[in-house]
Amino acid sequence: ATFGTLSERLTETFRNLRTKGKLSPADVDGTVREIRRALLDADVALEVVKEFAAKVRERALGDEVNRALNPAQQVVQIVNEELIAILGGEQRRLEFAKTPPTVIMLAGLQGSGKTTFAGKLAKMLAKDGHTPLLVAADLQRPNAVGQLTVVAERAGATIFAPEPGNGVGDPVRVSRDGIEFAKRHQHDIVIVDTAGRLGVDAELMKQAADIRAAVQPDEVLFVIDSMIGQDAVNTAKAFQEGVDFTGVVLSKLDGDARGGAALSVASVTGRPIIFASTGEGLDDLEAFHPDRMASRILDLGDILTLIEQAQQNFDEAEALKVAEKLANEQFTLEDFLEQMQQFKKMGSMKKMLGMLPGMGNMKQQLEDFDEREIDRTEAIIRSMTPAERRTPKLLNGSRRLRIARGSGVTVTDVNALVQRFEQAAKMMKTVARGGVPNIPGMGPV
Ligand code: GDP
């Protein structure tokens, strides 16, 4: 999908950033370099990329990041804000004339999706209670009038087209007549579809400029194919010089475009993107929202969550250091393991001990004693990291699962061990306070 690769690469860039606490200038530069490359590979115009990268870098090295609780998140926010800015900032709506009809002229290369957009816009406006008229001023392409007629029918809109043989070849006159027709028949909006060429040429521009001068449109919308890639900037600039336009329509945003046109055109021309066309159907038209488009590119929610999780682990590591210091003199799983091994030695003496007379209680305990249990316990503790052995509070669900897998037991076994250990630790406290303990690791005594 459009922006797919760009999204992935930006997410990857932030993934690398997320485990950092404070960001060094080198971290920032590395991140900005990655973003720059990702944008260039997505066909975003060089001038746009340069300015974008410079702004992000300046802000990321500034105070707002330095002071931030989570600098990585702050950098992502900055990238998001600057993305919104190059997409035009605030949403811009279609502007209507104070006295109807509102005249909307369309311009763009042939195949850009102009005619399709004319139908979509007519349908959308009709739904809002308007009575749009479609004017077929594309007299260049053999079947353009026929195509617009079909589109108008599907959109439930009226079409104004030159009678065959009458006025053919004069799009300016057709446009003017169309507006007169709209006034007489109470159409409050006129959409003028103009001719496109496969490439930008002088004649095309002159024709569009002439129509513009003749009908004084309230809006001139430049329709641009999102798939056009690197050519987007030159095409947009040529139309701006030749006809000028008040707004942009991005078409075929549903395709596999890398997104460069979408990301370049507003900032290169200084004209807002008003609509996004997202399919061949007449309902596939959306008002363009720069902030929503930016979130689509950045997957902001996902990235912020990722960073938050990383930050939690980071905090945990800090907490662990403190906990370790505090725990210095405490009973740990390592101590527990040592005790187990003591019991194991004792276990192998079971038979011998059992033969001794007068053992009483102790004899029964030794009978219940299972050597394999000790082996299991040992395996579990050996599967723990040193930090986990010292601070068993670290043992969350995923760590317990890892340990169970590592030692070939079930999570229930790990849980049971931790529980026994906790009981033992409690006894150790009792000892420390001068009480008399039971022997840990021997089950209920
Ligand atoms: P025009 O020459 O500028 O009037 O372009 P058309 O409206 O005839 O569109 C050219 C081709 O692009 C047609 O096959 C349309 O069906 C297709 N098209 C137009 N808009 C979209 C869009 O938003 N998404 C997709 N996938 N195809 C589109």
Automatic annotation (TrEMBL):
GO terms for cellular component: signal recognition particle. Its EC number is 3.6.5.4. It catalyses: GTP + H2O = GDP + phosphate + H(+). Residues 272-285 form the SRP54-type proteins GTP-binding domain. GO terms for biological process: SRP-dependent cotranslational protein targeting to membrane. One of its GO terms (molecular function) is 7S RNA binding. SUPFAM superfamilies: P-loop containing nucleoside triphosphate hydrolases, Signal peptide-binding domain. Involved in targeting and insertion of nascent membrane proteins into the cytoplasmic membrane. Binds to the hydrophobic signal sequence of the ribosome-nascent chain (RNC) as it emerges from the ribosomes. The SRP-RNC complex is then targeted to the cytoplasmic membrane where it interacts with the SRP receptor FtsY. This is Signal recognition particle protein. The lineage of its organism: Bacteria, Bacillati, Actinomycetota, Actinomycetes, Micrococcales. The gene is ffh.
